[in-house]
Design a protein that fits this description.
- The complex is a heterodimer.
- In chain A, about 0% of the residues lie in helices and about 60% in strands.
- Chain A is mainly beta.
- In chain A, strands 2, 4, 5, 9, 10 and 11 form a six-stranded mixed sheet that branches.
- Chain A starts with a strand and ends with a strand.
- Chain B is mostly beta strands.
- Chain B is about 0% helix and about 50% strand.
- In chain B, strands 2, 4, 5, 6, 9, 10 and 11 form a seven-stranded mixed sheet that branches. In chain B, strands 1-3-8-7 form a four-stranded antiparallel sheet, with no helix packed on it.
- In chain B, a hairpin with a 5-residue loop joins strand 5 and strand 6.
- Chain B is globular and about 35 Å long.
- Classes of the chains: A mainly beta, B mainly beta.
- The interface between A and B is medium-sized, with 24 and 26 residues.
Chain lengths: ~120, ~120
């Protein structure tokens, strides 16, 4: 059974600091991995999607890496801002019934960037 | 593009009543829709997967007679919580995909409170 874990569970940093969020998964047979952002009481915003054949993806100040063999992904946020404060979720996509992808979500990291 | 809406955003109902939540893909045809539940300070848990015109596939532990899912068109899926109880109070989020193994796009969520 696929399990997805995120460390740390919570993180507080001063504005401007670079930071790394970690995600690990137990079964390397994934289709892709996604990082999401969730603001309190809101839905999900997709940040980055890495296909299983890729090693990293970048979007602005965000960079996500994937090491499928070791079951790990990291989300790097450069020059953090108070507006980055949110819960960050990673999710791995599995083949499901042979024709549909199913997302298994991690436990989340609650990030607070202090001004 | 790839916008998914949910209605209502919040609903309060009395114990024993039924509640219907709608999920719509606004600018694409969603052949597959997913329903998730998120309890406070927990991650998203997949409840069921529905393909247009077919019966939904429920995850282990999810009662199909309690959580009725209908996916009658390529742009609309509904989740009906029947005979709701306070323990059904949760944040329900849907996602939609335009095809097999395609990226899922998430709705903004519905907060259900059962009194």
């Amino acid at each position: 059974k696929q399990e997805v874990t995120q460390i740390p569970a919570a993180l507080s940093v001063p504005e401007g600091e670079n930071l790394v969020l970690n995600c690990s998964f137990t079964d390397s047979a994934i289709y892709n991995l996604q990082w999401f952002r969730q603001d309190p009481g809101k839905g999900l915003t997709s940040l980055l999607l890495i296909q299983s054949s890729q090693r990293e993806q970048t979007s602005g100040r965000l960079n996500a890496s994937l090491d499928k063999s070791s079951g790990r992904s990291t989300l790097y946020i450069a020059a953090s801002q108070p507006g980055d404060s949110a819960t960050y979720l990673c999710a791995v996509s599995l083949y499901y019934g042979g024709a549909t992808n199913k997302l298994i979500f991690g436990t989340g990291t609650l990030l607070a960037v202090q001004p | 593009g790839a916008v998914v809406s949910q209605h209502p955003s919040r609903v309060i109902c009395k114990s024993g009543t039924s509640v219907k939540i709608e999920c719509r893909s606004l600018d694409f045809q969603a052949t597959t829709m997913f329903w998730y539940r998120q309890f406070p300070k927990q991650s998203l848990m997949l409840m069921a997967t529905s393909n247009e015109g077919s019966k939904a596939t429920y995850e282990q532990g999810v009662e199909k007679d309690k959580f009725l899912i209908n996916h009658a068109s390529l742009t609309l899926s509904t989740l009906t919580v029947t005979s709701a109880h306070p323990e059904d109070s949760s944040f329900y989020i849907c996602s939609a995909s335009s095809g097999s193994l395609r990226e899922q796009y998430f709705g903004p969520g519905t907060r259900l409170t059962v009194t």
